[in-house]
Amino acid sequence: MQLVIISGRSGSGKSIALQALEDLGYYAIDNLPAMLLGSLVDEIRDQGDRTHLAVSIDARNLPGALERLPALLEELRQRKIDFQVIYLTTDARILLERYSATRRRHPLTRDSEMTLEEAINKEEETLEDIRDLADLLIDTSRLSVHDLRRRITDQVAHQRSDKLTLTLESFGYKRGVPLDADLVFDVRCLPNPYWDPTLRQFTGRDADIVAFLSSYPIVDAMSNDILGWLERWLPAYQNSQRSYMTIAIGCTGGQHRSVYMVEKLAEKLAPCMGEVQLRHRELGLHFTLSKQSAATLISSTPTNERPETS
Question: What does the entry list as the binding residues for GTP (predicted)?
Fold first, then answer.
C-alpha cells in the first residue's frame, strides 16, 4: 500500500495535485477528516490488494482534528505504512490575487468575520505542524496547472521510499528565494557574464557562458566546495529517512551563474544518485538528468540541440 497525504494552503493547487494522482490510478479522497485516516488505511489494507491511496487533509477539518494528525502519522509510521506528506504553499500576495480574481470564499471566512488576508495568515498558522512534518514542500506561486501536474507525476507518483529524490534548482534573487528550498547557496560573488553585452543574451546552458565561467578558478573552487559538501552530507539526509531534497542555487537574475552551477553539479551528482531533477526557475525549464546523459550535459552543443529530458 502506498499512501500520499496532500495538504497545504487553500488556493495553492491541492485539488489539481489530487486529480493528477487520481489520473495515475490512485484512489483519491478530498477533504478527509483527519481522525478517519487510520480507519481508512485499515479498511483498504483489509481488501488484500496493493492499493495506491491519495487523500487531502487541510484546514477544512473539524476544529481540533488537525492537532491529532502528527500522532496519527507517527502511529502509521510505527505500523510500517508507506506514506508521504506533500505540502503545497503559495506566496500570500499571490493567494490574495487568486481569490480576488475568482471571487471564491476562503474556507476560514465562511463562519467568521475575518478578512481574506486574515484568513490566509490564520490558515498558515493552523497548518504549521503539518508543514513541519511534510516530506516534500512544493511552492506553486509560479507554477502553471501543467507544471504542478508534472511535478506531482515526477516527484510523488514515481517516488520510492528507499530513494532520495534530489532536485537542483537555479533562481534569481531579484524574484525571491524559492519557498520549497531545503538548502540555498548564493553564487552572486562569482564573475557575472551579464556585464558583457556580447554574452547577456545567453544562459548558463549555452557554450559561450560555460566557456566564460569555466575560465575563472574561483568558479571551479566554489563548485568543488558545494559538491564536496553535498557528497559528504546527502547520505546523512537519506539515512534519516529523508525522501526529498531541494538544493537551490541563486544569482542575481537566475540566467547565467546559477544555471551554470546547477548543471555542473548535476553532471557530477547524477552518476552516484542515479538521476537528478533539474529546475531552472527563471528559464521555465524542468527536466530529469539520468546517469546515462550526465556525461554530455555541459558541452559545446548549442542549447537548442540538447535533449530537454533524459
Answer: 58-61
Q: For 165-212, how does the pLDDT look when each residue is reduced to its tens digit (9 = 90+)?
A: 899 999 999 999 998 899 999 999 999 999 999 999 999 999 999 999
List binding-site positions for GTP: 58-61
| Residues that constitute the known binding site for ATP | 8-15
Residues 139 and 143: their CA atoms lie apart, in Å, by: 8
What's the residue count for the chain?
Answer: 310
What cell does 285 get? 525549464
Residue numbering of the annotated binding site:
8-15, 58-61
CA dist list (Å): 247 to 66, 146, 171, 262, 303: 30, 23, 11, 9, 23
Q: Are 257 and 199 in contact (CB under 8 A)?
A: no
Task: Report residue 255 as a C-alpha cell.
Answer: 540566467
Cβ–Cβ under 8 Å, residues 275 and 291: yes
Structure-block grid coordinates of residue 125:
498558522
